[in-house]
Amino acid sequence: MVNLTIDDKKVTAPKNATIFDAAKSAGIKIPILCHDKKLHPFGGCRMCLVEVEQMKGRLIPACTTPVTEGMTVTTTTPEIIKARKMVLELLLLKHPIDCPVCDAAGDCDLQNLTYEYKVNINKFTDEKFHHQIDYENPLIERDMNRCIHCGKCARICDEIVSFGAYTFINRGIEAKMGTEYDGPLNCEFCGSCVSVCPVGALVSRPFKFKARWWSMTKTKTVCSYCGTGCQLTLGVKDNKVLTTIYDENQGFHNGQLCTRGRFAYQFINSDKRLTTPLIRKNGSLVEASWDEALSVVAEHLREAKAADPDSVAGLVTPRLTNEELFLFGKLFRETIGTENIDHSAGYAHNALTSGAMESLGYAASPSTIADIQKADLLLVVKTDAYETHPVLGFEINLGVKRKDIDLRIVSDKRGKLSKLPKAKTYVHKPGNEIVLLNALAKSIIDANLVDASASNLPGFDGYKQSLEQYAPGKVAEACGMGADEITSLATDYAKAGKALILLPLGLGYVAHGKELAQAVINLALLTGKIGKEGCGVLIMGEKNNSQGAVDMGVYPKAKRNDAATILDSCAAGKVKVLYVAGENPVVSYPNRTKVTAAIDKAEFLVVQDLFLTETAEKAHVVLPACSFAEKDGTFTSVGRVVQRVNKAIKPIGLSRTDLEILSSLIGTLGGATYTSASEVFAEIASKVSGYQGFSYEVLGENGQIVPVTTKAKFVQVEAAPLKEEAGKFAMVTGSALYHCGTLSRYGEGPMHVCPEGYVELSRQDAALLKISENDVVNIKSSLGEIKLKVKVDVRMPQGVVFAPYHFADSSVNTLTDGSKVNWVTISK
Amino acid sequence: MSNAPAEEQTTEIDLTAANQVIDKYLTLPGNLMPVLQGIQDEYGYVPKPTIDLVAERLNVYPSQIYGVLTFYAQFHLKPRGRFIIRVCVGTACHVQGAERIVDTFFDKLHIGHAETTPDLRFTFEKVACLGACGMAPLAMVNDDTFGKMTVQKVEEIIADFSQRPMK
Ligand code: SF4
Ligand code: SF4
Ligand code: SF4
Ligand code: FES
Ligand code: FES
Q1: Using CA atoms, how far apart are residues A76 and A770, in angstroms rounded to an integer?
Q2: Contacts of B48 in chain A (CB under 8 A)
Q3: Residue B124 lies inside a defined structural domain of this protein
Q4: Residue B110's CB: how many other CB atoms inside 10 A?
Q5: Quick one: fold of A2-76?
Q6: Which one of B48, B61, B71 has the shortest CB-CB distance to A181?
Q7: Would you tell me the crossing angle of helices A109-116 and A78-94 to the nearest 10 degrees?
Q8: What is the rounded CA–CA span in Å between residue A689 and residue A708?
Q9: What phi and psi values does residue A611 have, to the nearest 5 degrees?
Q10: pLDDT on residue B2
Q11: Distance from A415 to chain B by nearest Cα, in Å?
Q12: How far does residue B24's CA lie from ligand 5's centre (Å)?
């Protein structure tokens, strides 16, 4: 620690702090324009000038100057004020004064400082810039006439996002912040650059001319897309969510969001939202009152319960709050009396519910998000971690670039993470992850790198024996890798002091979730890497509340109750009443034909959703539900963090929260009703393991981590190398960067950037098939055939094609049946 | 410059030479500048597909390469003519009527400053003092210098260089 004096105040600051940091920690405000706490210091704008007694004779930039012992700093003198005024005057020479039509007005650092420093006359005059405004994309408008050359956009896009869209281009007076070839912006559209731009040079187009900053109410809540659990601030006016507001102090991610969090909130106020209950009469869905709709539903549930509780089944989305999922479980298990409940098609969570549960004794990750930056080595299974959880991708980027963390990736294709410095990607043949992970374990044993703690764990000997057949030499070819590659990866992992394995899950990655989780947990146990800081396994649930759904027990306790069996029972006429809350199986569960046929067989289908989804269209009763913005409650995200979700707007139309709907059904069927989310949460705290002692007050702003106690054991995971089908392509499915599940189809941002499904293939295959980018091809599997647009990318290995699963038209689940790999043919 | 997408490349670019340049410097630290210079030597300018190639192979953002290319005057982003005509518009040449010489070139070649004739024979550039003010107004074609320029001489130069071989 260093002692210094700032404005006569004694201040103590860490050695590596700058004057700006030290002042800030002492509550002394120094104005800044080009500085951002998340970015490397730049020192370009000179707004932060201060006087340092030991460096007399010139003014010193506070944002780049480190503190030293005994330093005496003065932050405001007439001279400093004059210098800062000069900085502003010079900027205002070029900056157009179009604040009345600028969307940043009220949130503009230049405007605020100009006001604060009372710059009302300018000594200088100069011509303004005449740059053309970039209106080419639907999300970010770039008006470089307003740019003050602070460089923040370029730095954030490089340092944190690792996309690198911007750079200063040209020289002298022509110099400006530009893109490749000075072309239109074409990037990930995470909006990070918009968040940090101190002026209105970068603005959000969906928010353009929607509201002035000061006229909105701001509600802090949690993103409802992926499992990362990013905190959001919603800007609301007239019961409409108009934007997400950047708050650099929010969450572990310092306000960073991905394109979904930033630009996909429009589903909330979408005019496609269901606003009234619907009942099927004479074949078509017609508007109905809540009383009527709920009594029809209650009636059917009651009758079915009386006949056979197991003729009722429920499928629910992990997008609901913990409180709602808890009531969903209660409605089915207690009120109706059936175990037929599941979510996410029954497999997107079995890495947790069966995998981690058996191996560790709880259905959760042993590690937390904070472990990412504390590791020495990250082993990412599937590069798709970036697509499924972009802001965790930022954490990986930061760790690798700032903390020099080693990055190893094993995946069936390359991805954005592969481009990071020090990243080594091991591309294996699709579907052979388990074989590869077992080979890594075998190689660790052979190299005597097993941790002393491992042999004491139950199952060690059996596990060790089971690995015999996975010697790298034996299986390397099946994995499509060299044996030496396998051993060197194994050595790197085992020898890393702290190593964390990241495993993304989701509806796009259907097969062997349980086995994958167990294989990676085995690896971590073998090398003594569980239960230590910066170590372990982070299983990344796909949806905002995937972990919560598991914690609330909304998953089948036996195979005969899982989603696949429920649908089979529907098809066989055993399940007669199917209750679907927020899921859209027709599009997102594998094997569309089979799923559709099963759902069509249900005698009574209730769908509770925000939209008239492909599944809801088939329902007998449709109940309009509220979005997360209309709810209070909690989500539990990756790494077991329970965070509060806060209501920002009143329900749209007649829609009701899932909590209200479920509670009234429970009531009608004879159970106890609930009036508020906190009441349910109190019950959760008393009944759900790990949630004891939690209340909304205890959760506070940043949530709480559910504690776990590990009872680890080795579980043998067997896998034979996948049989390849000659002459066919291995199709793998997954997430596209801009989407998450099927909900993001109602978000303006993702739909503009990625409006439809596609199939991605390698350059070599494209050349062989004489196919080029944007051609439409027929893809055929043993189950069906669809047409998709082609993307050609170097990241794909030859023989492997990738298709994202989010889209309803030409939906990929027409081709898939939940196998690790689907073999397809492709023709023009 | 505008935000319009870069001009469509009409002819396919053979990337073999660019790949060879990259191979040569691949392991050299700070290899971006020599690679770009090497590519410019091979192609006479830096074609867009080579930027993408360099970005991919050296793992540098394409935007940053473009930033470098537009920062240093030595790089060219468009094909250059076989013969680079430079006319000085420095003070001495200006006083001696350089603008008329410039205008005559524009007129005869139907191109403007920093432009190239469609047959890739001539590129025209106005430049600052070439350091031979005694011979003002001054013009250069590649390495040949032409002093005391007149409108008549402009026509002679164009006629002369229009006859010369392109290779
Ligand atoms: S939106 Fe994101 S990816 Fe695009 S330029 Fe801005 S920071 Fe970079
Ligand atoms: S666009 Fe905004 S963030 Fe980027 S340099 Fe200009 S003022 Fe700074
Ligand atoms: S989708 Fe996920 S990564 Fe993106 S902002 Fe929301 S929680 Fe964060
Ligand atoms: S904020 Fe310190 S120089 Fe810009
Ligand atoms: S001004 Fe033309 S050569 Fe000096």
Answers
A1: 68
A2: 181
A3: yes
A4: 10
A5: Ubiquitin-like (UB roll) (3.10.20)
A6: B48
A7: 140
A8: 9
A9: -130, 160
A10: 38
A11: 13
A12: 40
pTM of the model: 0.91
CA of A779 to the centre of ligand 2 (A): 44
In the prediction, which pLDDT does A382 show? 86
Element (H, E) at A587: helix A585-588
Beta strands in A464-535 (DSSP E): 499-504
Distance A201 CA to ligand 4 centre (A): 18
**Angle (deg, nearest 10), helices B151-163 and B98-109:** 40
Q: What are phi and psi of A113, to 5 degrees?
A: -70, -35
Whole-number Å distance between alpha carbons of B86 and A17: 53
Size of interface A-B (CB pairs under 8 A): 66
Residue from A468, A481, A408 nearest A442 by CA? A468
CATH number of the domain where residue B154 is located = 3.40.30.10
Q: Does B61 touch chain A if contact means CB atoms closer than 8 Å?
A: yes
pLDDT surpassing 60 at residue B3: no
In this structure, the residue with its CA closest to atom 8 of ligand 1 is A157
- Interface confidence, given as ipTM, is 0.84
Token readout for A685 is 């705290």
* Interface check B70 vs A, CB under 8 A: yes
In this complex, the residue of A164, A174, A181 whose CB is nearest that of residue B6 is A181
Domain that residue B114 falls in: 83-163
Chain segment B63-106, per-residue pLDDT in tens: 999 999 999 988 999 888 999 999 999 999 999 999 999 999 99
Chain B positions touching A414 (Cβ under 8 A) are: none
> In this structure, are B95 and B142 located in the same domain?
yes
Determine whether the shortest distance from the Cβ of A48 to ligand 4 is under 6 A.
yes
Please state the φ and ψ torsions of residue A650, each to the nearest 5 degrees: -75, 155
Find out if CATH 3.40.50.740 is the number for domain A278-339+548-637+641-705: yes
* A18 secondary structure, DSSP code: B
pLDDT at B11: 60
Contacts of A202 in chain B (CB under 8 A): none
Which of B43, B71, B99 terminates a domain? The answer is B71
Which residue's alpha carbon is nearest to atom 2 within ligand 2?
A197
All residues of chain B having their beta carbon less than 8 Å from the beta carbon of residue A184 are: 3, 5
Q: What is the CATH number of domain A349-541?
A: 3.40.228.10
Query: What residues line ligand 2, using a CB cutoff of 6 Å?
Result: A 147-153, 177, 196-199, 201-202
Pocket flag, ligand 3, residue A223 (CB < 6 Å)? yes
Is B147 within 8 Å of chain A by CB?
no
Amino acid at A286: V
Per-residue DSSP letter, A106: T
Among all ligands shown, which has an atom nearest to the Cα of A250?
A: 3
Q: Which region, left, alpha or beta, applies to residue A780 given φ > 0 means left and ψ of -120 to 50 means alpha? A: beta
Please count the CA atoms within 13 angstroms of the CA of A497 that sit on its side-chain side.
6
Query: What architecture is domain A729-827?
Result: Beta Barrel (2.40)
Comparing alpha-carbon positions, the chain A residue that sits nearest to B4 is A183
pLDDT in tens, A719-759: 888 888 989 999 999 888 889 888 888 888 888 888 999 99
The pLDDT averaged over each successive group of 10 residues in chain A (828 residues) is 95 95 96 96 94 92 96 95 94 89 92 91 78 90 95 97 95 88 92 97 94 95 96 97 95 95 94 97 97 97 96 96 98 96 83 94 96 97 89 96 96 93 93 96 97 96 96 94 97 97 86 92 97 96 94 92 94 97 92 94 97 96 98 97 98 98 96 95 97 96 96 94 91 90 86 91 94 95 94 94 89 87 93
* Domain total in chain B: 2
Decide if B66 and A181 are in contact by the 8 Å CB cutoff.
yes
How far apart are alpha carbons A537 and A541 in whole angstroms?
A: 12
Which protein residue has the closest C-alpha to ligand 3 atom 8?
A: A230
Please tell me the distance between residue B150's alpha carbon and the centre of ligand 5 in angstroms. 15
Contact between residue A746 and residue A582 where contact means Cβ atoms under 8 Å apart: no
